[in-house]
Specification:
There is one protein chain. By secondary structure, this protein is an alpha/beta fold. The protein has a domain of 73 residues. It is 38% helix and 12% strand. The chain has a two-stranded antiparallel ribbon. A two-stranded parallel sheet has the order 3-4. Strands 5-6 form a two-stranded parallel ribbon. The chain is extended, with a radius of gyration of 20 Å.
Length: 151
Amino acid sequence: MGLTPAGSALLDHQIYLPKDWVLDRERRAEVGIPRSATFRAKPELAVDLSDRVRSHGAVQLDWLTFDEGYGRDGTFLTELSRRGQRYVGEVPVNTTVWTTDPATQVPEYSGRGRPPTLPERASVRSVVALGASSRRRTGGSSTCVRGVVSR
């Protein structure tokens, strides 16, 4: 959906098929779902839709807005950031947000032990990945948001 002061318009669309529908051969045959249709998560579809709209060149997507279902998906947020897309979205109340890139911050020296040094970016990514995998194992629902894009 595209919104302007002059009105709104449907810019593109894509049907979402729940995973259980994609895996159910009888249901697929009954409702005419083509064999080529595969399961794709809603955030994946949203990125593709915005890419398609942008590729037509008729409309500029200044901002994307979305609800918590998309705001909890780190891959979705990363893809929007990678494309330079500005966005405003809901995130779960327990979301961890860093106002500065943690890979660029050095903790204050406490006077004990070895003085802290700037971490390597790879180590920060591995900590984030470890946190994500442990949330999957424990059923937790927090998501780390690594940045907000602004122009």
